Amino acid sequence: MGYYEGLRRMPALRLLLPFIAGIILRDNIQIPFPLLIAGCSFLFLLLFFIRIYEPANVRYNIRWLYGLVLNCFIMIFSMCLMSKTIQAPTFMDYTGKDGFIVARVVEPPHERERRYRVLIEPLVVIGDTSITRTSGRALGWFGKDSLAGMLRAGDRLVIPNRFSEIRNQGNPFEFDYSNYMRIQGVSGEIYLDSGEWFRPEQVAARNLLLTAGRLRERLLDILESNGVTGREYAVAGALILGYRSEIDQETRHSYAASGAMHILAVSGLHVGIIYLLIYWTLGFVKKFRYHSIVRVIIILIIIWFYALLTGLSPSVTRASTMFSFVAVAGFFRRSANIFNTLASSAFVQLLINPLTLFIVGFQLSYFAVAGIAYYQPFISSVIRFRNMLAEKIWALSTVSLSAQLVIFPLGIYYFNQFPNYFLLTNLLAVPLAMIILYLGLVLFLISFIPFVASVVAFLLNIALYLLNFITGTISHLPFSHSPDMIINIPLLIILYGIIFLITHFFILKKPWLLQLSIVFAIAALVLRSGYLISTSEQKIFMVYNSGRYSLYSFISGKRNIVVSGRDQDFEEAVMPYAASRTALFMNTDNVNVISVEQMLDCKIKGMSCPYHVEGRFVYFYGYRIYFAESNETGPLDAMDPVHVDMLVISSRFSSSLHEICNVVIPGKVIIDSSVPFYLRAEYIEQCIELGLNYHDVRGAGAFKTSVHQFPGG
Fold this sequence. Notes:
This protein is an alpha/beta fold.
């Protein structure tokens, strides 16, 4: 069967592709909503006209026209839906005004170093003369006190109306946290200290999500009260209930490096395990007259009850929707085409919320299931075993191979690493994860029977310990993972093209597929070579937005001098996160972290610098930068003002710009992130008074410029 014939048998996939194209297009291009509505209406009328008035004798010949118009209509319709989702009114439309907001706690507090992080849902905006219902979600950062620590899902709060947008620091190549929260439906954040909020008399909540959240809290208490504690408790909460707040960084690294991170995210794997267990267990219902519909109803009830147990987290809801479609398709005897079923479930989820497309978990889940459905039968048929145990091990291996074959390019793109021992990890970890999941569910069901619950909890602890031991051991093996792997969108597309062509060469035995894959590989090498050449010639100065301390970079080819104002032992200086991302993506493998004093003294043992220093002037390829690190300007006080390309102001300088402009005449003033808020405002005002071009790193993000962009360059 050809690809065209295959697509004809997957109508949902043919609808999904233009729908996804419209979402991506609208996310990157601003188009007025009235214009989209007009275009959608026109295409709908055109479809109606073609379908009703086309002559019967030419209907077959112009079928391509109908298909083209239909695809354009679906694409424009998804753009309309995306615009409506993006522009939907939220509580942020009322922020900055006087008054209060009544909000509801969605999730219990997650303890951080200095504050509690609480997900809240604003419900009502109370102004001076009006009360307005609102919607959306926000992050609340509560000062640590006993009241904040006791908040629970469903609690009502009264808080001041001073939400702010969630903003990135503006550093190059940083994780786009603002967009990530936007996709999650979180529009703003607020910082609250003790006494700035209060909890009024509570009313019993009847919201399904809140009920699910409270149920999950109760189940977590059952785990803890039965002796599941420490790392085992953290992994059990994540694996069984999707509660990942207790997982520390070391555990995350172990699971990521060993290739078992998907086990900690309750998603398609976990729902699939439950689905298969129910399906096999219900084999006896075939004796009944209406066994098919009975099985489907029971499967749907149990799957969605499990989703409720996990707090109806988005990942579990997506997976439950996916397997619900699979179950219903099986009832209608259409399970042979799994891809049409997957496309149908994805289409429904994107109709509800188009932003779901950009959630990494959504992409990985559907790619993994599609990869298993497509490649696993072929890979498993390559080798046959007569031994049942060997056959089961091979079957589990082929499932892991099929999924990894499809998702590893996405994994490299998003996480910049590849777990080399993923096959070994999954052979050991997935069966253990199944055992842990089943033991956890059994523990919840029999928790009211003390002795039996203790036995099950004991077995659960052993399984969790083994899982942690296995992932920790594999993650510490030599070459456990390949870090620092970088690909962009063009390389990602080319990589998928190579995978598709090579795998189909083995399936179809067509030489042209292999030849075309070589062309794709050459294109990838050309792109990679161009990137390496461009980075070998780079000359860049950068001032990062790094919070309360100064952070600069001098980049020359692969040489990168990172200058940190943080108090630390510079004999073993730690690379700051913002600078490490830049070093990774800009291909600078020769990196040194030094202090500001070391930079200005230019006395770094055994290290050649791409700049030289004269007093507080730093010359970087002939361009002059003055670092105002103290209130002393030295012998320059008696000299005429010196022209500099840039004047960098840090927290160590507290004089007026009027004074320093008697010493230097800057082409641009850079106010770095270490400068306190009250001084930033003063410096900005002084820059405006003096007519100076300035860049406020805290407000505008990191400052980055190439040498050839400097004045006189």
